[in-house]
Amino acid sequence: MRRLVALALGPVALGFAVLAFPAGAQQIAYGEGAGAQWEPATTQVVTVTEVTEEVIGEETPAEAGVAAAGSGRFVASAPVAVPRGIARYGPFRVLDDGRAALVDATDERTPAAFRVMLAAHPGITTLELVECPGTEDDRANLALGRMIRARGLATHVPDGGSVRSGAVELFLAGVHHTAEPRAEFAVHAWADEDGREATDYAPTAPENRAYLDYYREMGMTLPQATAFYAMTNSVPNASARWLTATEMGHWVNYQ
Q1: Mean pLDDT of 12-29
Q2: The model's pTM
Q3: Burial of residue 40, with CB atoms counted within 10 A of its CB: 0-12 exposed, 13-18 middle, 19 or more buried
Q4: Which domains occur in the chain, in start order?
Q5: Do the Cβ atoms of 191 and 4 come closer than 8 Å?
């Protein structure tokens, strides 16, 4: 897991209804300017009670290292309008028969929410990453990424979409990934609960190997995975490096 010092935002008066989230989590606003396609009259809220351990399964040694490293990580940004969709499963919104959107940070419950959503809406083929500040549980986040890949979903960042910190791993999980010109990404180093970052561990330590293994599973060669991981860890945990869609395209192949 990784923990990030959140750049928490205070309430902003922008004519939006700002939702309340736990301290340190990203605030999200629902805006009138989102358009009718984003604001259906009703949204079905589905409560997920399944335990995450049933979804994640047995840990590999590398994943155990992730679990020992910290709790979560995310980067805050300005509140944006997000889709309400026709049904809600944790941080996911079902937009239509073929698309779902991720609109919040992931946590230990998210893999179960994802599984329940796909069981109810098996026609979903694309996950849109709209407002994605990161994760509160990196172990569950990597498990979710593997579930996205195993299900064969494509990942897409629409214009104005924001994919930050641990959410970048989910973008990489798509069998095809695309991003509109005004999409943005943010990366930085992880830090464990003792304040140690990736460079404080040996390159072959489980804490580092977990992410390199994950990038390899998502289609990167070992040199590509090593270079990408080094780039993310070159930015201190308390900061972030912002990338445009074009800059992110230097690290991934848009399809």
Answers
A1: 28
A2: 0.75
A3: middle
A4: 18-248 (3.90.226)
A5: yes
